[in-house]
Fold this sequence. Notes:
Layout: E1 5-15, E2 18-25, E3 28-33, E4 45-49, E5 52-57, H1 59-72, H2 74-79, H3 82-92
Antiparallel strand pairs: 1-2, 1-4, 2-3, 4-5
Amino acid sequence: xxxxxxxxxxxxxxxxxxxxxxxxxxxxxxxxxxxxxxxxxxxxxxxxxxxxxxxxxxxxxxxxxxxxxxxxxxxxxxxxxxxxxxxxxxxxx
Length: 93
């Protein structure tokens, strides 16, 4: 199942002419393309689908959605266990 998940922008940088951000999805941090939301700023929330920020979201709505996803275990389903992912990445070094 594919989900559009709300996340908070932690950092913004330009990479090869593309605006990218580090985004926190309730403890899971991923790189996201900001080309569809060029005015998004650090601290803003957005709905992200397959690595692209698609729509700005207010903080309360984002928090409620992330809490619901966490209760249902959907963040782990979508992103995997962050500790397991970190262990796999460390083992690959």
